[in-house]
Amino acid sequence: MARNVKLLLIESVDTLGIVGDVVNVRLGYARNFLMPRGLATTPSDELIKSLSVKRAHAEQQVAELRKAREETVNKLEGFHIALERPTNDMGVLYAAVTHAEIATLLVDMGHKNVRPRDVRLAQTIKRIGGYDVTVKFDAELEATIKLDVKSDRKLEMLEEIKAAEEAARAAAHRHPAETAEGAAPEADAAAEGGEAKDAAAPAEAKPKKAKAGGGEAKSAGKGGWGAPKPEGKPAAEAKGEHKDKAEKAESKPKKDKTKA
Predict the structure, then answer these.
(1) Residue 43's pLDDT is what?
(2) CA angle, corner 88, sides to 82 and 90, nearest 5?
(3) Is the Cβ–Cβ distance between 150 and 121 less than 8 Å?
(4) pLDDT at residue 225, rounded to an integer
(5) What Rg value do the Cα atoms of the chain yield, rounded?
(6) Where do the domains of the chain lie, and which CATH numbers do they carry?
(7) Residue 105 C-beta-side C-alpha neighbours within 13 Å
(8) Torsion of Cα atoms, 43 then 45 then 46 then 48, to 10°
């Protein structure tokens, strides 16, 4: 089953075409909207010819409408409008600003061909402040206007908050310079303290080195591993030589004193 169907427009339809156009639309859109309302029918050559006069008139209307929209776009570019709405103490609107409100305001100001569908909002407007609003008639016909949403009463609490924020920002701009000036002496003092500490470190190391030297000397004096070895022969070797001399002396015959 086909999902699309071709129809002949017997009346101009926004965003679809003008009378006499043959359009390709969804089957549901054709059955539920176009055909029941008498806006389109099944195309035929005879019907297309019969609509030629009506089509020429529609084309003239489209040209006039485009010219009027071009003039409106030129007037609206950079245009400023203001809107007052009820708010709470923090500037929050009780109801968001709608496309219809903006379109009505523009029409009241003399821009008669602006419709609610031509107003495009980039975000929901629920607070007081300034907003950019686009009025778009066609792909090449659009303008950006400035909308200023105001409260219908004086907001003392919000003004106090804004004043406090401005004071905080002003203080933040002053503090960096003061911090930089105060940081320089602290950095110099820290550098001097580091140099004094580095100079004191070798002085503390010197007594430890002398103490180590004294320990070596003490060990040498007690005959430790660092003491010099005594000169001469070892005691065991000297004792052996003495014993040999004694044995030789005993082995020699004694002279007879009587014979002499």
Answers:
(1) 92
(2) 85
(3) no
(4) 47
(5) 56
(6) 4-50 (3.40.5.10), 74-156 (3.10.430.100)
(7) 21
(8) 60
pLDDT digit string, tens, across residues 100-134: 999 999 999 999 889 999 999 999 999 999 999 99
Q: Bridge partners of 85?
A: 151
Q: 0.70 cut: is pTM over it?
A: no
How high does pLDDT run on average in the chain?
77
Distance CA 197, CA 70 (A): 80
What sign results for the dihedral spanned by CA atoms 28, 29, 34, 37?
Answer: positive
Element (H, E) at 81: strand 80-85
- Structure tokens, 157: 């609490």
Digit-coded pLDDT (tens) for 208-241: 444 444 444 344 444 444 444 545 455 545 555 5
* Dist. CA 37–CA 7, nearest whole Å: 13
Q: What per-residue confidence (pLDDT) applies to 161?
A: 74
Give the whole-angstrom CA distance, residue 217 versus residue 227. Answer: 9
Q: Which two tokens stand for residue 16?
A: 């679809």
C-beta pairs of 113-119 under 8 Å, 24+ apart in sequence: 113/65, 113/68, 113/69, 113/72, 113/137, 114/72
Query: Is 133 exposed, middle or buried (CB count within 10 Å of its CB: 0-12, 13-18, 19+)?
Result: buried
- Which DSSP symbol is given to 25? E
CB 95 within 8 A of CB 152: no
Contacts of 188 by beta carbon, 8 Å cutoff, 6+ apart: none
The HSE-up count of residue 202 (CA atoms within 13 Å, CB side) is 4
pLDDT digits (tens, 9 = 90+) for 142-180: 999 999 999 988 887 777 777 778 788 888 887 665 555
Q: Where are the alpha helices (DSSP H) in 98-155?
A: 99-108
